[in-house]
Design a protein that fits this description.
With 741 residues, the chain is an alpha/beta fold. It contains 23 helices and 30 strands. The longest helix is centred in the first third of the chain and has 11 residues. InterPro entries: F-box_dom, LRR_dom_sf.
Length: 741
């Protein structure tokens, strides 16, 4: 029976690049590389398109044995600096080859010393947007840092997490901070200083210890805060409901409230959770409250009137429980809920779309949930029966054994879409298996990673029409063009070659016009010959994306000529090539004149005969012959005169720092095709003698701008369809109201 897999309207790969960048913003570099690196070209280009989502843990990520050090350094060489830094120890924080303090936007100090705190100043970190400082006892340095933070010393700072706020200081306010986390033992200081200085605060995570010197907070210490929406309050010390009531009186706009306390806090054992009184306090003080959470309650230390609680876990409907269970893996579901009662058992067994990772310790789970598993990863060579997993969509064998491979059959797994098989080095994939994979028996198989594909023979009717993406390792170069013949609809092929040089058989004529668009070749032992590569090029004339990592035994200029002759559709080329012999000088201008795709490769860096084709922002400013005419996107990250008139075809322009001179040039129509303008650092536009006309701009983005500049932009951009900005008011801002505004 053939089952058509429904096409979901929203899938991860359908998300726009902007959303993916927002997601990547919350993921550490090592996790980004482990999860997304080399999945496909698009994700790679997004990962390495910007440095704003990259942060490193210093010095862990740059030590000699760091897993992803090479990838990190390769990326840094392209981007020139990082944006996010986390110091994991109390060692000295020094400027590194890719750590430049003025470019840091996110800074985390896990074990700060007095010298660390003293370094965190607006002069050193002018672009700081996120700051987290661990516990420190350096009172003098902390007071100075708090003065900078809460007096708008860091005008771009949005999120901040601090400790040890315990002294009264005169702060002028910081309008940019919208998320704050602090520890304090002075509730009056929190109200009178912190909330007053953070007038636009939206999210507040507060560890507040109530001292014995305060009974309750008096009324009207300051006006009520008007923007706070989310409060996570950790109670410590001598709290009572009366004190909580006096505290909540100053934050009436809160919509989400989380209260918690420590089980080990001896003073909190006297706190009485009377929910009737608590609900009355909420109704009086927090009229907008829509969500209340109270985790970690201990019945031995609290008095709880359960009759006052509106919902319990077992009172939730099945639909909510089912939605909740989606976020659990099978192992967690089994150990948390299985066997509680018949209702939970039935719910668990009714779920589908389960994912399971099998290690040595959880082999029995596959027997319990075989028919419900859709994504299966086996990380052990032990014999495992997967014959009952008939609904599999994704299968990954990380240490594939002969027993496991023999069970991969189309009659058992008819819906398989993704397949990964990584056997030990001494095991080649059996002929019977390869025949089934490449004979269209798996009607839905679209992506496969097959290691040790060493034996491959073409048989009549030997074709897979569904395969679109394929990664193989092989020891015989003939395997590559045989795969092309077996997969006529293949879009992307990544081949890793581990064999010796073999004579490659001339492919049959039907292979000569394959529709393949992406080809990646990796030859780590430098055994792949130029003639063999040339024969493969004959088969793939439609390739648009080419990556080569091999030893080139002819002059590099000959390789380039051959590529341009064979691959007439090429528009993207990357290489990491060991050139031997190096008896011809590489003429960059000649290569770039051959084809437009090579003109963006600004320079060749010959380092011990290893050629990296890279772009360089530094030399781009002074070189008029290579890049500007072909660029559609320009990013200027320093205060230099780039000569905008040279970039006549620019569609998207981004300035980290900009001047009125550059804005006036744009207004003079030197960029007739400009559609998107991104001005990262802007506060107030200086007066300009003349009018701004930015009629081609459709999308405008600014980080912070006052209302006067906002009005100026609206007047200048008559055809604007999207304006993304953060507006603040200042004493320089005068709102001008007119009928035409």
């Amino acid at each position: 029976m053939n089952i058509d897999i429904p096409q979901l309207p929203y899938k991860f790969e359908n998300l726009p690049n902007e959303i993916l960048l927002e997601i990547f913003d919350y993921v550490h570099l090592n996790d980004l590389i482990r999860a997304f690196y080399n999945l496909n070209y698009r994700l790679n280009s997004i990962l390495f398109s910007s440095n704003t989502h990259l942060y490193i843990v210093f010095p862990d990520d740059i030590i000699g044995n760091s897993t992803h050090k090479k990838i990190l350094l390769d990326f840094i060489r392209r981007q020139r600096y990082i944006a996010r830094l986390r110091l994991s120890n109390d060692g000295p924080l020094l400027e590194h080859e890719f750590i430049r303090f003025p470019y840091i936007r996110s800074l985390i100090l896990d074990i700060p010393t007095s010298k660390h705190i003293e370094m965190v100043s607006p002069k050193q970190f002018p672009r700081l947007e996120y700051l987290r400082v661990g516990y420190a006892s350096a009172t003098v340095q902390l007071n100075k840092l708090h003065q900078h933070i809460f007096s708008n010393g860091f005008p771009l700072l949005k999120k901040c997490s601090l400790n040890n706020i315990g002294e009264y200081q005169s702060w002028t306010g910081s309008p940019s901070i919208y998320s704050l986390g602090i520890w304090s033992n002075d509730p009056r200081l929190v109200i009178q200083r912190v909330l007053c200085a953070s007038m636009y605060l939206i999210s507040f995570h507060l560890f507040l210890k109530w001292p014995s010197t305060y009974s309750i907070l008096q009324d009207q210490i300051i006006p009520q805060h008007t923007h706070l929406k989310y409060l996570k309050l950790h109670l410590s010390g001598l709290w009572t409901l009366e004190k909580l009531d006096s505290f909540l009186a100053y934050i009436p706009t809160v919509k989400i409230l989380d209260l918690s306390s420590s089980y080990f806090d001896s003073l909190m054992i006297y706190f009485q959770w009377n929910f009737k009184e608590l609900s009355y306090i909420f109704s009086c003080r927090l009229p907008n409250l829509s969500h209340f959470d109270l985790p970690g309650l201990s019945c031995s230390t609290t008095i709880i009137h359960w009759s006052d609680m509106s919902t319990r876990l077992e009172s939730l409907p099945n639909e909510i429980l089912t939605d909740m269970f989606i976020y659990f893996d099978i192992s967690s579901l089994y150990h948390s809920f299985s066997g509680l009662n018949q209702r939970f058992n039935n719910l668990i067994h009714s779920l589908k779309h389960h994912a399971l990772i099998i290690e040595k310790h959880n082999l029995s789970l596959i027997e319990l949930y075989a028919s419900q598993i859709m994504r299966l990863k086996i990380n052990t060579p032990l014999p495992i029966d997967i014959n009952e997993c008939s609904n599999l969509i994704s299968l990954e064998l990380c240490q594939a054994s002969k027993n496991q491979i023999e069970q991969i059959r189309s009659d058992i797994m008819p819906n398989l879409v993704y397949l990964t098989i990584i056997p030990p080095y001494h095991i080649s994939l059996p002929m019977e298996f390869t025949q089934e994979v490449f004979s269209n028996s798996f009607h839905h198989l679209r992506s496969a990673r097959l290691s040790r594909l060493d034996t491959f023979e073409l048989l009549p009717g030997f074709q897979s029409l569904s395969l679109r993406t394929l990664y193989i390792t092989c020891t015989n170069a003939n395997t590559i063009h045989r795969v092309l013949q077996a997969c006529p609809n293949l879009f992307s092929l990544h081949a890793q070659f581990f064999g010796q040089h073999h004579h490659i058989v001339e492919p049959i004529s039907s292979v000569y016009n394959h529709s393949l668009e992406k080809f990646l070749l990796d030859d780590p032992y430098h055994n792949f010959s130029f003639d063999t590569l040339n024969t493969i090029f004959l088969c793939i004339p439609n390739v648009k994306y080419l990556v080569l990592q091999f030893s080139c035994r002819v002059p590099f200029i000959h390789l380039v000529e051959n590529i341009l002759t064979r691959l007439t559709q090429l528009d993207h080329f990357e290489c990491d090539i060991l050139e031997f012999p190096n008896d011809h000088m590489v003429n960059v201008e000649i290569i770039q004149q051959m084809n437009e795709c090579f003109r963006v490769l600004e320079s060749f860096h010959n380092l011990k005969f290893v050629f990296y084709l890279t772009t360089s922002n530094n030399s781009l400013i002074s070189n008029d012959q290579i890049f500007p005419v072909y660029g559609h996107t320009l990013i200027v990250d320093s205060n230099v005169d780039v000569g905008l008139n040279r970039f006549s075809n620019i569609r998207r322009l981004k300035f980290e720092w900009f001047s009125m001179t550059e804005l006036a040039r744009i207004s003079a129509n030197v960029l007739p095709y400009l559609e998107e303008l991104n001005l990262v650092y802007i506060a107030t536009l200086r007066p300009y003698n003349g009018s701004l006309f930015l009629s081609t701009i459709r999308t405008l983005k600014t980080r912070f701008t006052d209302f006067s500049s906002y009005q100026t932009f609206l007047s200048a951009c008559a055809n604007l369809s999207c304006f993304q900005c953060s507006i603040f008011t200042s004493d320089k801002c005068n709102y001008i109201e007119s009928p035409n505004t």
